[in-house]
Request: fold
Amino acid sequence: MTTQRPTAVFRADASIDLGGGHVMRCLTLAGAFADEGWHVGFAVNAEALSVVPSLTETVVSILVLDEVDEVTALRERWPDGVALLIVDHYGLDSEFEQRCRPWAATILAIDDLANRRHRADLLLDQTHGREEACYRDLTGPDCTLLLGARFALLRPQFQAHRRRALGRRESTAPAERLLISFGATDPAGIAATAMRAVARACPDLSVDVVAGATSHYLDEIRRLAAALSPAVTVHGAVDDIASLMADADFVIGACGGTSWERCCLGLPTLAVVTADNQRQIARALAAAGAIELVGNAGEVTVDTFAARVAALRDDAARRRAMARAAAAICDGNGAARVTEVLLRETMAGGPGAYLLYGGSSRRITIPVEKDG
Reply:
């Protein structure tokens, strides 16, 4: 028994091609643990510092990994070990997790591909409709599975805006405000294509375009906004994207982790698959009626977008149906649910009294309600 504050370390990367989603969802969970009095640390690649500026603004303990042996680097940075290791990285699997076992008391793997083995105590996959069978042969028998969008790691601002946003979705009038957002980097430059389509089909729409500072297309987007319409506003680093989503009538965006943010706010979406790892999400949300799938990044054109934007702008009933379907998928409380499970897994006793234990030496069975 010890009264020292426990430590949680997050292993995630970000880059122009990968985007910042892995680091951002880890930051959400890190904030929840910091609020519970934990020490929080991040182990990231160097590029993550520029792709996700909020990382250095909110996290004091950051290890930039530039060594071949990551496990050794982690142990040297946190020599006393950690109560919780969170691994959110497509390139790391059971081998990495097993090597961390003597150093990390409890390990959570965050995944949404279901394509590699894990040696973790818990696994989180926030994909809507994800089934236990997908991980049956990829995890150990004692691994607790947290599956589905009810465990989506959203920042508190989304839950805070949910009621107002869902009220707006019940409007029967034509849409007035559109949001275009393809993440922090938009490596395929789809936002610019969407802007041209909106200018052609619906020049009367007020448009908010979110383009991160690391996007290769930021200058082009700004030039287009100046040339196309005074009703187009370009936003760089956005602290409260939930507010922009809540004020929009519909959105053009990718099928990545932001999908769950849009679902929480019931935001009808014209969706584009911008990476292979988004295909399962796209299929699940399209089947639920929460999105209208426009196509893949390499296929969408100005003509494709123009027709879809014009149709959805004028179809209030369609937007309401999409909003209700989306809102039923994610309520914005996922981070709280995950935090509760992890706290029960890693500690016991009253406030300030922590009992830390390793791996399979002591297990707690946690009833987990399935998604859907």
The longest strand covers residues 82-88. The longest helix spans residues 21-35. Residues 161 and 243 are 7 Å apart (CA to CA).
